[in-house]
């Protein structure tokens, strides 16, 4: 058996839609029903993100091209130093999400975060953001380079580390095999899928698709990864909007289930999802 | 760069029961609610539209003689749901910043879709309200409220010219993006405030979707706005 | 400029949903509006396909696990010899689709088909069927082996050859670059995406997703491939159900647009789509 | 292996106007049409359900005193659309093979969802019809047609027993998969025909979606069926 996170419930807030804890200000959520809150991906240097428009939605998809807007390592450190992280963590366990624009940046930010990694129950590495030009998806084009990166990160930390994988860089179960063989503890599958929509003003929105239409794809990814790797820790991500879907994801092999875009519809669905697992 | 500090606020989810729905003009309605909730002029709410949309939808809040109200233009399935449903509305509020003008020597210009907000500001700050509409307002509205209305594009441009030469220090404009941009460009003598309509998913600063390019870098309409100084958004030439 | 197919209209019937020409029996379609009809993928040996259930649908997705049921090369030869292919081709230009379970099978069937390839305006190689255990998707896991296969096929034939790519074996624009660099004429993007649904009888249906929800993903793939390769011939496939979508696909870089699952909704949409391009 | 020869047939798309819609039993309706179309007993059609489904939906065709009809059980959004719409239905027909029994010494057993087909076969071959229903049939139906009806599971099992010991050479059964399987297993003395309800996308042999495992390998319900010998589908023990 691989290591596990032992969450109080298997419900996890996805990296990005939950920002840096803003949903903790929404009074309708009972956080004892939530197992962990993943912060938005932090990169070494701050990013101001992409130009607007950054979002659009159809009936089944939400498309976003935020472009990893984040305060960078310095911003994160400030949140640690001013007690924000401790305050958030006192309400719900936190997962840190890290990203980078290059091999060196991934390693560098890992090193820099080491002093306070114990404030987080796990670190998720975002290898699959479709909305940045370097890093994210492109780091995975060169399979051998990526494998070296996985090895390098594993060497830097004993934390519970999770690789977040999309479905476009290679068969997700093959990617997960690589992750596992480098001694990582878990994978999050899937991330958004690259899409293109033209909005009502006629602007082209190139971004990542999230929402209900991802669900059967994410469910399949969970199934394939579990089939390939009986012991790896799996966080399911993609189109989960209802308690039945949490149950189904768990049934097909997920250890935890992440909720992203559904927060935008009604964050109180977290209560319904978490209730049955709460002790 | 936008700041990343998390605000020390509480956002509440309310269930609001419709009290009345009246047509303002073509496809635009004023909806008032039975319940009360606390908010300040300029703030907005995110309305859950059930199966009619993947995200909650943003609407500016208004208060008319004590009653909470929103005005809604039917722009798609979500807004249509809000107008037509007889169910209670699940609403996250209050969101965004209160509008706090430097003095009370101002005026408000709104499209019919922002009438609730306009009435609220006008009542609250005791300042005049102008409604700029594409087509005439309904009898129900004009009989209930005393409104200065201009109809059509030409009427709107003439109003802007007048206001530009008026005694007011500032003008608050809330409507479509085009309407707001026109106001900023055509009232160079005035401080113009605009309430932006960026695409919003969370309304609380989490998703970073509602980015606006301002003269001071990227800001977020939901947490830095929704009201901005017009000259922060559009250069005047 | 790369070679082009010069179709009478840019509307193409997708491989699979159109079977082996059965839609030519439907009287509501005016075939002069259709540019080409791709036959269902043929493999060296006949395949009887997967066990039922083979299909299921949600509002936005159709899931299928046909498993490349096809009569094999012998069946195809019979259709050539008994005049069926000529008869079909006299109504609408045909594209042959070929698949295989191994390197050798792809090469072998190419050789065997050579004597009658002139009956087809192009040959599409299916490298992306998610529903067979060997071949299809898995041939692409080993990138170098796949590149050798592309080279070997190109050596065997002067036909207009097109590689059909999914989005899961690697970034589709990277895959297309490889295809182009091996001297191939075109790509079809995308194929179905692997999904999992539980049907109303509680059976697990592991298959490929097609239908409306694929559209923004396919549109993005077309955009990315066109950006990477200004000259390659692109057939767009995925979720095209309406004439506006044909136009949009062409606008973002497709040379032709394939119609698959939409046939199941109403094949007469082909008339609406083709009309405006008809001379 | 299924054969891959392409049939020399024409499939036509018809627009059918509803003539009457009457309730047969709970959530199941008999819909008759104004237009005529040519088909043989046992054949089916694929009905376009507009936005209510991604594929056309298969329904067996029936003819009652000359009028074309289908019966429809509301199983989901598509069938609900068919029952409720007042638009004309876009229908691809006739599909599948005609049912040609070896002699006329047979009987038909149908669920209410296949009543149109049942009435047609009964009338056409001049053979008795039995309706096996979960709940009682509506007054409208029983007053219009003289039907032998059994209600409930026990009633159905008794009917099968009787028919198994009857004078008939063959029994044609059309309903749910469970009902058909029960018929095959419980009437070992008889040749049983079943009309299969496989998931269909094209209905014309193109998609290979409607595969059925038979004693003679994979067949396709749409082009090899929809009627099969029961002992080709289910082994009898
Ligand atoms: C702060 C703020 C306050 C607003 N106040 C009002 C108001 O008082 N009255 C009013 O009528 N309208 C207001 N709007 C606009 C209103 O939110 C949109 O018209 C509404 O969301 C349309 O939803 P739909 O489902 O009907 O449209 P859709 O069919 O989804 O889209 C139609 C158009 O509506 C806009 N839109 C859709 N979804 C969103 C979204 N999530 N966020 C922002 N815009 C969207 C887009 O321009 C889109 O092209 C406000 C917007 C913002 C950001
Ligand atoms: C040859 C044939 C003849 C049939 N004749 C009749 C009939 O005379 N009367 C009648 O009431 N029903 C008949 N059926 C079943 C009928 O087609 C389904 O009930 C109908 O398609 C349900 O569609 P829906 O959108 O309402 O359901 P959905 O909500 O889409 O699904 C509900 C259930 O209906 C079935 N179903 C859905 N789509 C299809 C499909 N494309 N093909 C087959 N089954 C599907 C599945 O079991 C599914 O789980 C027949 C089926 C076949 C294959
Ligand atoms: C607005 C938005 C921002 C996102 N930002 C990130 C991010 O910073 N890091 C990350 O790993 N995933 C990010 N994602 C992806 C989500 O974590 C999630 O994997 C994806 O949205 C699919 O799940 P969903 O359908 O539940 O939203 C973002 C998604 C959205 C919609
Ligand atoms: C029932 C079915 C069978 C298919 N069979 C094949 C096939 O044999 N070869 C192939 O290359 N693609 C096959 N496909 C994929 C389609 O050609 C097409 O790429 C995919 O369905 C996406 O397009 P659509 O959304 O227009 O259907 C099949 C798809 C369906 C739905
Ligand atoms: S709407 Fe999400 S950050 Fe503003
Ligand atoms: S339904 Fe398509 S082959 Fe039978």
UniProtKB/TrEMBL annotation, chains A, C:
Q: Which GO terms describe its molecular function?
A: dihydroorotate dehydrogenase activity
Cofactor dependency: FMN
Q: Which PANTHER family match?
A: DIHYDROOROTATE DEHYDROGENASE (FUMARATE), DIHYDROOROTATE DEHYDROGENASE (QUINONE), MITOCHONDRIAL-RELATED
What name does the UniProt record give this protein?
HisA/HisF-related TIM barrel protein
User: Pfam families, alphabetically?
Assistant: DHO_dh (PF01180)
Organism taxonomic ancestry: Bacteria, Thermotogati, Thermotogota, Thermotogae, Thermotogales
Pathway it belongs to?
Pyrimidine metabolism; UMP biosynthesis via de novo pathway
Q: Which GO terms describe its biological process?
A: 'de novo' pyrimidine nucleobase biosynthetic process; UMP biosynthetic process
Q: Which residues cross the membrane?
A: none
Taxonomic source organism: Fervidobacterium islandicum
Q: Would you say which domain of life the source belongs to?
A: Bacteria
User: What does the UniProt keyword field contain?
Assistant: Flavoprotein, FMN, Oxidoreductase, Pyrimidine biosynthesis
Domain Dihydroorotate dehydrogenase catalytic per the UniProt entry, residue ranges: 5-276
Q: Name one GO cellular component term.
A: cytoplasm
From TrEMBL, chains B, D:
Q: Which residues bind [2Fe-2S] cluster?
A: 202, 207, 210, 222
Q: Which residues form the Dihydroorotate dehydrogenase electron transfer subunit iron-sulphur cluster binding domain?
A: 197-233
Cofactor(s) recorded for this entry are: [2Fe-2S] cluster
Keyword annotations: 2Fe-2S, Electron transport, FAD, Flavoprotein, Iron, Iron-sulfur, Metal-binding, Transport
An example Gene Ontology biological process: pyrimidine nucleotide biosynthetic process
Q: Which GO terms describe its molecular function?
A: 2 iron, 2 sulfur cluster binding; flavin adenine dinucleotide binding; metal ion binding
The UniProt note on the cofactor reads as follows: Binds 1 [2Fe-2S] cluster per subunit.
Q: Which InterPro entries does this entry report, sorted A to Z? A: Cyt_c3_hydrogenase_gsu, Dihydroorotate_DH_ele_sf, Dihydroorotate_DH_Fe-S-bd, FNR_nucleotide-bd, PyrK_electron_transfer, Riboflavin_synthase-like_b-brl
Enumerate the Gene3D superfamilies for this protein: Dihydroorotate dehydrogenase, electron transfer subunit (2.10.240.10), Translation factors (2.40.30.10)
The family database entries (PANTHER family) matched by this protein are listed as: DIHYDROOROTATE DEHYDROGENASE B (NAD(+)), ELECTRON TRANSFER SUBUNIT, DIHYDROOROTATE DEHYDROGENASE B (NAD(+)), ELECTRON TRANSFER SUBUNIT-RELATED
Record's family? Answer: Belongs to the PyrK family.
Protein name in UniProt: Oxidoreductase
From what organism does this protein derive? Fervidobacterium islandicum
Write the lineage as a comma-separated list: Bacteria, Thermotogati, Thermotogota, Thermotogae, Thermotogales
């Amino acid at each position: 058996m691989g290591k596990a996170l032992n969450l109080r419930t298997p419900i996890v807030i996805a990296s990005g839609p939950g920002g840096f804890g803003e949903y903790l200000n929404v009074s309708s959520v009972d956080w004892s029903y939530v197992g962990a809150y993943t912060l938005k991906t932090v990169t070494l240097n701050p990013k101001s993100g992409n130009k607007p428009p950054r979002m659009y939605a159809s009936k089944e998809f939400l498309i976003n091209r935020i472009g990893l807007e984040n305060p960078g390592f310095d911003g994160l450190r400030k949140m640690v130093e001013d007690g924000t992280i401790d305050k958030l963590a006192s309400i719900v366990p936190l997962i840190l999400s890290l990203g980078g624009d290059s091999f060196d940046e991934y390693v560098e930010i890992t090193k820099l975060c080491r002093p306070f990694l114990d404030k987080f129950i796990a670190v998720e590495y975002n290898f699959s953001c479709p909305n940045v030009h370097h890093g994210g998806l492109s780091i995975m084009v060169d399979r051998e380079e990526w494998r070296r990166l996985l090895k390098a990160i594993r060497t830097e930390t004993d934390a519970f580390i999770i690789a977040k994988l999309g479905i476009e860089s290679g068969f997700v179960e093959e990617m997960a095999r690589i992750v596992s063989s480098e001694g990582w503890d878990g994978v999050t599958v899937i991330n958004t899928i690259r899409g293109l929509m033209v909005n009502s003003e006629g602007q082209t929105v190139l971004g990542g698709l999230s929402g209900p239409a991802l669900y059967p794809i994410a469910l399949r990814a969970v199934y394939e990864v579990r089939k390939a790797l009986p012991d790896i820790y799996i966080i399911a991500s993609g189109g989960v909007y209802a308690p039945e879907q949490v149950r189904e994801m768990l049934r097909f092999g997920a250890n935890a289930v992440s909720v992203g875009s559904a927060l935008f519809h009604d964050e109180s669905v977290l209560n319904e999802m978490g209730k049955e697992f709460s002790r | 760069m936008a700041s990343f500090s998390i605000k020390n606020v509480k956002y509440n989810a309310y269930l609001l029961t419709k009290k009345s729905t009246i047509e303002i003009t073509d496809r635009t309605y004023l909806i008032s609610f039975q319940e009360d909730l606390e908010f300040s002029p300029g703030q907005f709410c995110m309305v859950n539209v059930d199966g009619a949309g993947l995200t909650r939808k943003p609407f500016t809040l208004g208060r008319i003689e004590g009653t909470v109200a929103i005005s809604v233009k039917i722009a798609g399935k979500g807004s249509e749901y809000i107008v037509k449903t007889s169910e209670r509305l699940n609403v996250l509020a209050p969101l965004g910043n209160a509008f706090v003008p430097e003095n009370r020597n101002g005026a408000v210009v709104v499209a019919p879709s922002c009438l609730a907000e306009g009435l609220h500001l006008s009542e609250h700050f005791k300042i005049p309200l102008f409604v700029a509409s594409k087509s005439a307002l309904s009898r129900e509205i004009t009989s209930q409220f005393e409104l200065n209305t201009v109809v059509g594009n030409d009427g709107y441009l003439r109003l802007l010219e007048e206001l530009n030469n008026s005694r007011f220090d500032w003008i608050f404009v809330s409507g479509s993006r085009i309407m707001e941009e026109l106001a900023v460009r055509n009232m160079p003598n005035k401080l113009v405030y605009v309430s932006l309509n960026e695409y919003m998913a969370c309304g609380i600063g989490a998703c970073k979707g509602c980015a606006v390019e301002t003269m001071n870098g990227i800001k977020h309409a939901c947490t830095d706005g929704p009201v901005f100084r017009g000259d922060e958004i559009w250069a005047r030439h």
